[in-house]
Each structure stands twice: as structure tokens, then as C-alpha cells.
């Protein structure tokens, strides 16, 4: 079986998103939140949520990579796609309602892009006469 290029591409973009999340977002969000004077409970919750996103992206990267090699992992990619679209909707709704614009927190773009990249991977490959 040939690797699923679309799932492989989604794995690469998702993996790059981990680096962006950790190295670009890390200094901007967790460090500032910890220095903001939140009480210990609030700071702890913020850090748990931050690291949960890191874990989510890591597991999603692994699932996309696995699905690129074996079709048995396609249901995991479908689940992650639904989850990523839901997260994108959260960014859009919260951005518009609380910040007045969807552009202050544009993370929704990467979540939707990863899903969009993976969608063609769900098509069944067309078999040629030589393959039958």
C-alpha cells in the first residue's frame, strides 16, 4: 500500500504546529499568564490547558502519520478532524464575541488548514486494470 500523501502532509503541518505552539506561543502566553499575578489554582489550570493542547497536537501528529501508512487509523483522523473543526469554531466564536474580531487569535486558520489538507486522503484510491 502506498502512503497516503494527504495524511502525511497533515502530519507534517501538525508537527510544525507543535513547534510553533511551543516556541512562539510559549513566551507569549504561559510565561505572561504565570507572571500576571493569577492565584496558584488559576495558574495551574492555565498551564494544564496549555500542556493539554501540546499533547493534543502531538497525538494528532502521530495519528495522521499512522493513517498515512495504514488505513486502519482513518477513524482516528476523522475524530481529530471533528475535534480540530470544533476548536476552530471556538476560536472564531470567542474571538468575535470577546475581542470583536477573529484576527487577534488566528489559530483557527491552522486547525482548519490541517483538516482541509487531510480531507482528500479519505477518498478511495482508483484501481487501475493492472492492480485488479
From TrEMBL:
Keywords assigned by UniProt, alphabetized: Membrane, Transmembrane, Transmembrane helix
Protein name per Swiss-Prot or TrEMBL: Uncharacterized protein
UniProt keyword annotation of Transmembrane helix present: yes
Annotated source species: Pelagibacterium lentulum
Transmembrane parts of this sequence: 49-69, 76-94, 100-119
The organism's place on the tree of life at top rank: Bacteria
Amino acid at each position: 500500500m502506498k502512503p497516503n500523501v494527504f495524511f502525511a502532509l497533515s502530519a507534517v503541518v501538525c508537527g510544525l504546529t507543535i513547534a510553533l505552539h511551543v516556541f512562539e506561543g510559549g513566551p507569549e502566553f504561559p510565561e505572561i499568564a504565570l507572571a500576571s499575578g493569577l492565584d496558584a489554582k488559576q495558574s495551574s489550570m492555565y498551564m494544564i490547558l496549555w500542556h493539554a493542547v501540546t499533547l493534543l497536537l502531538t497525538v494528532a501528529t502521530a495519528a495522521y502519520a499512522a493513517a498515512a501508512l495504514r488505513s486502519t487509523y482513518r477513524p482516528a483522523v476523522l475524530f481529530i478532524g471533528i475535534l480540530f473543526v470544533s476548536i476552530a469554531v471556538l476560536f472564531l466564536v470567542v474571538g468575535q464575541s470577546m475581542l470583536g474580531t477573529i484576527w487577534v487569535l488566528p489559530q483557527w486558520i491552522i486547525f482548519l488548514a490541517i483538516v482541509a489538507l487531510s480531507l482528500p486522503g479519505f477518498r478511495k484510491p482508483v484501481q487501475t486494470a493492472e492492480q485488479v
